[in-house]
Amino acid sequence: MTVILRDKASLRAWRAALPLGKRLGFVPTMGALHEGHISLMHQAREAADVVIASIFVNPLQFGPNEDLSRYPRPIEADIAKLEAAGVDALFLPTVEDMYPTGASTLVEESMVSGPLCGAMRPGHFTGVTTVVLKLFNMVQPHVAVFGQKDAQQCAVIERMVRDFDVPVEIRRGPIVREADGLALSSRNIYLSPEDRAAAPLIHQSLRAVEAAYRGGEHDAARLAEVGKAVLAQSDRIRVQYWEVRDPESLGAITTVGARGALLAVAAHLGTTRLIDNLVIGAEV
Known about the structure:
By secondary structure, the chain is an alpha/beta fold. The protein has helices at 8-16, 35-47, 75-84, 95-98, 117-120, 124-139, 151-163, 193-198, 200-214, 220-231; strands at 3-5, 24-29, 50-55, 89-91, 143-147, 169-173, 237-245, 261-269, 272-280. The chain is built from 10 helices and 9 strands. The chain is globular, with a radius of gyration of 19 Å. Beta-alanine binds at residue 61.
């Protein structure tokens, strides 16, 4: 049975009652859980003795014209999935609990948060780093697991943990995909049947670039053009960015060298924004 902790006081009491020496794994989420999230729970279980998840739709990481109000919140179904996965506890705070009246401190990472989604969603990663640091302080986990699908988010959190000496080990869980390659996302439910049929081209564009790289093409700009050409097959896909980046700093590169590269894409299908990525040439 998953213990439901609905405020900071109950979380503190639960955390204090854990036996000494037990390793605590943590998976923060915004809910609307799918198999990608559940795979992170299993990875946390492999790395820890006790696993806690959180569900909090964080208003700080949504822009004024984004989908905060309609973001899916199937909490009962989410709890059932966590129980089936053997998660020990769920932290389910309110906005008021996370951001009390008068709260005015934000956490801003200033390098890896700048390009890609950071350029398209101003303030988004400040919202992410602020809520994640708060959650780390509340939960006090030994290890936390984040999904590679949000590769830039992983990089930002890793940089924050390093820069602030936060005593949490960060692990990345691999992307979980549908049979046709579409990365699992809570936002996939917004796709119309026509947009869903076109969506696998996003992953196909990444694989096409990987194949071109393996075939000897290392020029970053030409590789990106290969990816964009795949997405151009459908007029339903509006590319926001298709980039070949340094896998650690996320800085621009001209050639894929020994460090490899992160292939990163963001695109709109209808009103739904999807992201995906693939590492080539080296491990992140």
